[in-house]
Putative N-acetylmannosamine-6-phosphate 2-epimerase
Amino acid sequence: MKTKDARKSAILESLKGGLIVSCQVQKDDPIYTDDIVVKMAEAARWAGAVGIRANSPEQISAIKKAVPELPVIGLWKVWHDDTDVFITPTMKEVDAIYETGAEIIALDCTAQITHEKTAAWDLLKQAKEKYPDAIFFADVSNYDEAKHAIENGADIVAPTLYGYTKETAHIEGPDLREFARMCRDFKDDAYVMMEGHLYTPEDAMKCIFLGAHSVVVGSAITRPHLTAKRFVDLLSGYQNNWRDAEKAKH
């Protein structure tokens, strides 16, 4: 069942029907500057976004200082060559995000095996036991992983990693039919949000219509180099796949 905690419920309900902007940048991105994520977050606030998704303790802290009124979904991406698990993969990253004061902690809740040779989704239960006051956002790639995450206490589930696992790596667009099934089946047990492969306001509105509590959009808003690459990819006859750049390890 959805949380009965009044504080958590207030935060989660404040996101209903709104846009959460993913404000992330890596140091090898062509748009990188020390304050770029803060500018992204300030622009999102100006536009009327209801929340921010941010990566790494440093960037989360900077954003929380700049836009304290917006709830932050915090994560920490750590890449290894032997695994596709990179979103908040261990308790070390959970600890660091919690210390920033991020209202929500996002982590990989897929069945994939981590660099530490554990199932990624095992971390959720451990993190909830350590931080019962935290709100947890489960990034999954399919319906079964969403179900497993909810059974282990996830407050939020989203198909963030659809397209980022070996089984779904060939995918470019969202699976709206599967997402609608998640919304129908899990709406009483968790907050189902949409994240991934949304490129227009119309895409976002479709997801709200299908039952999304809110939507998270990143690349289409805050990563103009990838938006440009999508155009170039099509204009060049799909000779290069822009998604390779989107999925690149940093």
The first strand starts at residue 19 and ends at 22. Residues 194 and 215 are 5 Å apart (CA to CA). DSSP finds eleven helices and nine strands in the chain.
